[in-house]
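## tool: complex_structure
## caller: assistant
## args:
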Amino acid sequence: MSKPTQTSIPFSEFPHIRELVRLKNQTVRLNDWPVQVRGGIYILCVLEGKYEWEIEQHRYILYPNDVVVLCPWQQLGSPTNTLEIGSFTWLKLEPALFEPTKELQLGDWSALQENDQRLMGRLMCSHAPMVLNQLKQVNELLTKIEQELKQAEFAYQTRINQLLDELLVTIVRQQSQQQNQRRDFPQAFEQLEKMLRQSLDHPWTVEEMATVVGLGSTAFTEKVKAYSGFSPLNYLINIRIAEAMRQLRQTDKSLTDIALDTGFYSSQHFSTTFKKLTGYTPGHYRKRQSGDTS
Amino acid sequence: MECIITIDIGTTKVKASAFDLSNNLIGTRQGSYPTFHPQPDYSEQDPEQIFLTVLYALKGLINDELSKKHRPTAIVFGASMHSVLPIDKYGIPLRNAVIWADNRGRDEATLLKNSELGVKIYEQTGTPIHPMSPLVKIRWFGKNNSAVWLEKVFKFISIKEYIVYQLTGQLVVDHSLASSTGLFNIHQLAWEPMALEFAGIKTHQLSEPVSIDFADLKLKKEYLRLFRVPSTIKVIAGASDGCLATLGAGVVTEGDATITIGSSGAVRVAGKQVLADEKQRFFNYILAEGTYISGGPTNNGGVVFEWFVQQFGASGVHTDIEYAVNQLLMEAERVSAGAGGLLFLPYLLGERAPLWNANARGAYMGVNITHERRHFIRATVEGIIYEIYSIGKLLQQYRSIENLYINGAYATLPFFAQTLSDVFGKTVYINDKHDSASAGAALLALTQLGKYDSLTSAAQTIKSVKTYAPNEQNHERYSHFSEIFDRLSYKLAEDFDALVALQG
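## result:
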């Protein structure tokens, strides 16, 4: 039985690239592809054949140009341990920091803004497992990266890191669009609302919220206004104050803690906003509960 | 210039509207909030978020939308029915509110519905025994919570009661909203002991019932300041959105009916008597003392057509749904009535009236090789309307219906309106007031203020601006389809159950 052909390249100059593999398998191989944690940011693209794999306890059927993106702690493999005939390629990136707490820092090599990196991490966590159908660009970009590595032409180091960034941007954009295709805006908005509530303390920008929904900022702002009656930032403040109202009356937490938890950068800012929206200062609102209803 | 403010607390949004004293709309402001589904059967909302959205809509309407010369003299409330929110003795919510769409009480409902007690409770309360009913939901809370938690529950109230409580510090429930709880005796206008016992609560755990024109409510001074309104402003309890929409459609006496098709739908009639249906197929809610709004609700209105548009309509990211709906309806118009013999059962979300079968599911019947997409589009609309008609036919066994008034985002689309007219074989009317729930609330407030001597004379001021007359040929053709539709809906019950079991 012939071993699958596997080409990989050494990356001494790119410590953040752990693996870049092209695997071609010409016979069915038993006990060769178990469900296991793959580690790193693992980007796999099917090139030939049909694979039925288990990814994070879900069954998926993958065809050529389908792409899987895993967080460092997520699992992928064949539930029968078998590697079917076909070929696929994968890239494993080692991020400087990435934990299920949703903080993602790619490392110094990336030119992506810190905020965008964090958002990418959050999207990867909330949509796990990320399976993108028919995304040709991933294989194209991986091939280019491979060529750059092999040929080592002028400024290839810079070029490769740029290509990695482009790969990640392509994936994130495709993810938010695919997520919202064939769905009406209310459903996409519901998804966003869920994410906002999960990380209320994050300094959300309109651009970030728009990315989650898969729209540009201008179209997003217009849609949110028409749909919810609020501007995106006002809608966000509304959720923040609603959560603060709950905490004020159901917990003993200090005003400062509540302010920070709900995404206000100072208790002063919190108080002013709270008063403007509810007619009460946070302290006064909390004291109302001493008045019995009976 | 004096004006009145109506607040409609709906399932997806709150709408604040201002009307002048002749009931002309002069401004609106709205804001939306989400429904959470922590489990598939659960539908919940955040009471604080809804409250903030009410404040936002009210403040925006009064301070930004209205000019300085408008002085609000009264605020009146309408709201969705059947929500339940447990609060502690300080008025603090103990959890999120559970709304009408929540099905967690399925088992409790089935047991009660098939019992003698269920029949008796329905006769006294007028609310069909169904998971939507607060009667069933509170029973569920009692069975699924610790004694310690239940001990903390001071009252079970609705979202509207919470909003009014936040604004005024007073806990009251209007007769109209109370009559949709399944706990309220609609003949005696008091909490029904049989129902309370089933729910496992005492009278003091519910708010005090008041008339819909009860106005002994006072806004807290903080809100007077926030909205910049005088302390003389009247706060009127109001009613449920369904009853107000019927009033706002001009229907408060026998002979008329309203058909609403928004996301869901309903057919409603008004009268002095309740409709005592042995099979519990109708609701009987109170509009005001001595006036009942009866009818049947359907789960499968515009939401089903939207489903079709999303699955089989134009593709692309965020295609504007309104645009896509209109494109498809244009295609449907190119097919003649009856969709070439293609018949659609629209029960995608199970069904309430008249089947009351949560396991009912959708089906296209009679598909043949010549059917194209446009036939499916037309069949989908027709199926939604046969379902509405099946409620209408049942109502007509109890009441004669002369005039049909239609409202809701879907019913008023020209293609839907014409098909409604053809299927029913009656002229349908569209009123000048598009938002009949707000218009009804305004009529109630104006009556309270003495501008009209009764709700009946208030309702007479509503004018129709558009009519659709039936095409007799189409009506004849549709009546055959409607018969098959009704037969299939019941005949397939066994297979619906089997399929639902497989749907997991």
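## assistant note: Chain A is about 45% helix and 20% strand. The CA atoms of residues 288 and 294 of chain A lie 14 Å apart. Handing back to user.
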